[in-house]
Amino acid sequence: MHDLSPSGLSRLAPSRRTLLRGMGGAAVLGAGVPLLSACGGSGTAADPKTVTVGSNASDAVPKKAFADIYAAFKTQSGITVDVNTKDHNTFQEQINSYLQGTPDDVFNWFAGYRMQFFAAKGLATAVDDVWQTIGGNFPEAMKALSKGEDGKYYFVPLYTYPWAIFYRKSVFRQNGYTVPTTWDQFVALCKQMQKDKLVPIAFGDKDAWPALGTFDQINFRANGYDFHVELMAGKASWTDAKVRKAFDLWAEILPYHQDGAVGRTWQDAAQTLVSKKAGMYLLGTFVGQQFTDAADREDLDFFAFPEIDPAYGQETVEAPTDGFMLSKAPKNKDGATKLLEYLGSPAAEEIYLKSDPNVVAASTKADTSSYSALQKKAYEMISGAKHLTQFMDRDSRPDFTSTVMQPALQKFIRDPKGIDSLLTSIERQKKTIFASS
Amino acid sequence: MSTDTPTKSQEAAAVPPPGTASPKKRAPQGHRRLLTRRDRLTLGLMAGLPTILHVALVWVTALASIALAFTTWNGIGFDSIQWVGLDNFKELFTNNPQFWPAVEHNVVWFVVLILIPTPLGLFLAVQLDKKIRFSRVYQTAFFLPVVVSMAVIGFVWQLVYNPDTGLINSLIGANEPGHYIDWIGDPDLNLWAILVAASWRHTGYMMILYLAGLKSVDPALREASALDGANEWQTFKNVIFPTLRPTNTVVLVVTIIEALRAFDLVFVFNKGAEGTELLSILVTNNIIGESSRIGYGSAIAVVLLVISLAVIIPYLVATFRKERRA
């Protein structure tokens, strides 16, 4: 309490005790500095038998899955993989400084703009030589996803998962619903579900990114893949009539979305589907994580977002893809190349999928016989797609999506009538952000 | 402020003896300095290290962020810093839909803290000062939220406010479709919902500050006013409260600081969604994370700095003036 007395606040002459305290603090900080700088890299000199990997797989399931892959790689090649795992979100937030410091040889990352951005900044090494070996394992769409803006390969995909509309087969059977394939059928189904006292579309946007997924689906169904790419790249205008049309369509089904979405997490929204209070839910296949009961899991199914414009049909699938990149100056490039070649092989993907049943292999060569019905369906959906998109925050600048689009879409969900001024504001902010390098 | 002078003179008096004493002891060895080499080295380290750290961690960083506010920088390599003059501020004041709400919410935060939990804390302190039974238990109970970290408070209250499974909506039956009360997402409600949590904590803080102030009130004053026939309210209003002036100053400063640095509670609660934007959250969203709009985020930080200075400079001027008078 001494410091809070009036004399304490205005005390100017430092007592010996504060000086000592300062010394102690200085000592602690001094000790902290080398620790902090040590966090960046593993610090081991080029050892031809070791490759370092920066991993964002901090959750137990993927962490174990990756460890299995690296163990298999060691028995095959004799090279040890030294993994430096960081918390998933922290890894993502620190990626800028991480890649500029002393990054590990190989690191986990996402396909799409987020990969191309670091490739263009010279923070990643091209892996064309790896692709000469693994090229045959992947479909064309995956190859396109792995290239930088300069046409070189920078990315080795491991697994992917589609976004779709999830439902429970038993609920559809009981109520005699059929899977809608067109917009009109979809709206009619929503109306019917509302009559049947179901929440037609479960929805939670507290984390601010799920709404980006809804917009993506409506936008590329209504305006096509090319427009999606242009819009995400900052070339097309947000005040374009096409964008307005996408929002109008969204406003049409918004009344059938679960109330109070901005305060609800996606996990809570998924629970309404689990408990059969909601009829449908638009999300990635990771929604399966919330279906912990085996019988419920069996009952889970999905269908592609319905067609809006027949010109584009259901040709585009949103399938975020995770994989690996090679850092700018790998200490053991030969070893890292070997590791990437292994990671791009069907064998590595099969090991990974054994532990994580919510995703599917990026390679077409991987063995699909052990897939669950849901995985098989996801795999078919992705391999049959004409275009693959990543997700708004992976296809566009992260600074634009996180500081402009996320709050803007939360606002739209609450107040769809204010769309015109919202779009003008988005466009104005977009211009400033995309103008900066 | 009168307590200041004695403390200082005591310290001033206490310092010389060790300094003069040691040379006397060492005099035979030929050292005639006031301080030995070791003393000077120690003093140099003790004063130098904190100075270097303070300059590096406070001044250099503050000035760097002011300089960065006039640039655009994505955080990759120093050569990508571009001078843009006042563009960031223009963009902020005219184009950012979250900026003015954020300023407004910081002000609302301060006004609410000063109007509700502060008088409540004073009230509790006055009650607890009456030497009632179990006073310590009550003190602990009210002070407990202050000990708990803000992040934990945010987490606990978002469970209370959760629209589907939260305590409030479950109790009043507002977790059914059509009846939802979205405490966390609705911009008309969420700021107030969070302020309840913030006030819950702030009350305890204010109570302890006032309790300390009340303990130092001379009991003779109460006796004198009782002898003059003043009732309890009159005594409090005319005798006790005026003597709490120094405490009030501290309370005011602490509350302003709390309002300006409000961040963790809201960030955990709903990440500063519409209705709960705060300057500190805008700074974080722009600088930290992948977005890395470092120049733009720095511009927001500079606005926050200017607001803090506008509040702190008058306070410091007033304090110094008083000290000089004393």
In short:
Chain A is an alpha/beta fold. Chain A has helices spanning about 5-10, 15-40, 60-75, 90-95, 95-100, 115-120, 130-135, 140-145, 170-175, 185-195, 210-225, 225-230, 240-255, 265-275, 295-300, 335-345, 345-355, 375-385, 390-395, 400-415, 420-435, and strands at about 50-55, 80-85, 105-110, 125, 155-160, 165-170, 200, 280-285, 300-305, 315-320, 320-325, 360, 385-390.
Structure commentary:
The complex is a heterodimer of chains A (437) and B (326). With 437 residues, chain A is of the alpha/beta class. Chain A has two domains: 50-160 and 322-382, D-Maltodextrin-Binding Protein, domain 2 (3-Layer(aba) Sandwich); 163-318 and 397-435, D-Maltodextrin-Binding Protein, domain 2 (3-Layer(aba) Sandwich). Chain A contains 21 helices and 13 strands. In chain A, strands 1, 2, 3, 4, 5, 11 and 12 form a seven-stranded mixed sheet that branches. Chain A has a four-stranded mixed sheet with strand order 7-8-6-9. In chain A, helix 3 (60-77) links the parallel strand 1 and strand 2 (80-85). In chain A, helix 3 packs antiparallel against helix 17, helix 11 (210-223) crosses helix 13 (241-253) and helix 20 (398-414) runs antiparallel to helix 21 (419-435). The radius of gyration of chain A is 25 Å and the shape is globular. Residues 1-44 of chain A have low confidence and may be disordered. Chain B has helices at 4-14, 16-26, 37-68, 87-95, 99-115, 117-128, 135-147, 150-161, 167-172, 190-215, 219-227, 232-243, 245-261, 264-270, 279-287, 294-325, and strands spanning 71-72, 82-83. A two-stranded antiparallel ribbon of chain B has the order 1-2. In chain B, 72% of the residues lie in helices and 1% in strands. Chain B is built from 16 helices and two strands. At the A-B interface, helix 1, helix 2, helix 5, helix 14 and helix 20 of A face helix 1, helix 3, helix 4, helix 10 and helix 13 of B. Chain A: This is ABC transporter substrate-binding protein. Chain A: Pfam families: SBP_bac_1 (PF01547).
